[in-house]
Fold this protein.
Amino acid sequence: MSKRKYRKQAEAAARVIFGVCAFFAVLAVGAIFLYMLVNGIPAIRHLGLKNILFGTVWKPVAENPEYGILYIILTSLLGTVLAALAGVPIGVLTAVYLAEVAEPGRAVLVRDAVEVLAGIPSVIYGLLGVYLLGPAMYRLERKIFAGSRTHQFTGGANLLSAVLVLAVMILPTVIHVSESSIRGVPREIREASMALGASRIQTIFRSVLPSARPGIVTAAVLGVGRAMGEAMAITLVSGGCVNFPLPFGSVRFLTTAIVSEMGYAQGIHREVLFTIGLVLFGFIMLVNVAANHILRVGGEGQGE
């Protein structure tokens, strides 16, 4: 009787602890959003939301300053989408290899390499992009635009370089989460598929991956969040100029705009940078809401 009472007390205490942790997690998100809102709203009131979001000229320190961030927003959206399109399929297929195909020895080797990728600081990715990817991009740029009088050569620091660096950086997150989800698929699903005459590859792509879809979608969302929130690496490889996002053009992302200018920004300039932070926060929230909607619809479809 005393053991049963002790277990009930322990469970009650655990619920309280978990509830407190969840409360502080929500409180932290709310506090961050409120801080960004308080510091970003004055710029919206002063300049107007339309002028900030749809303006195409960014000259915050000019005699007549302009604070249009449309090209910065387009760069972040396009760069994140392209990085996800490149990195997520590679990450998911690597997870399939680790969970379903690879021998134990090879799986350990690949998994260790992925762990190393996860532990590399973002600035190192940026430096590798500058010294390894940059020269190759510059040579490719010279071949493509040889003889062009209008193209501005960037020395390899462009949108395409940033996309490739981001695609590599999201791989560890996508691989880890996807592999855990694939390994969590019950063995009975594999056995039932094989019993019906499906090959191993057919079982993986028609039974295992659909069953692991919630975890794979979560991996993609986390990868997109990592790509959208990265700053230091792409500061080094994107060029840093506010232009319309073209593959071989020097561009600036939302995060790099904040990192590059917050150190000296004052007044309305500083407030606009907080507004950029609000835009970035909103995009990440939209990605999570969309992912939850996809998972809910998918779950209902499977239930039917």
